[in-house]
Amino acid sequence: MNSADRKQVSKLVSKLEELQSQFEEVKSAITELADAEQEKFDNLSEGLQASEAGQKIETAASELSSAGEADSISDALESLGNIGE
Fold first, then answer.
1. Rounded to whole angstroms, how far apart are CA atoms 57 and 64?
2. pLDDT tens, 10-48?
3. Which of 36, 39, 31 is nearest to 69 (CA)?
4. What pLDDT does residue 17 have?
């Protein structure tokens, strides 16, 4: 590998490290949202928890939690896509 190729690899590694850092920040924000949704659900009465609205809150909390624990962007997107279904 010549000097120019090593420079290009170094730039790519830096970009990947930056993306990884941003991904971790996004996952942290998603986890905070998951915790907030779970708290909303936990504060509902049993009757409201069993209602359609309660079930939607619980599903959102679960999918957000999965997205926050994802190892890849595609896994996180898949979990987040399930919230609207």
1. 10
2. 999 999 999 999 999 999 999 999 999 999 999 999 999
3. 31
4. 95
pLDDT at 82 over 90: no
Query: How many other CB atoms are there within 10 angstroms of residue 64's CB atom?
Result: 25
Helical residues (DSSP H) of the chain, grouped into ranges: 3-42, 46-50, 52-68, 73-81
Vertex 83, ends 45 and 57: CA angle to 5°?
A: 10
Whose CA is closest to 62, among 44, 50, 79? 79
Closest of 49, 75, 52 to residue 64, by C-alpha? 75
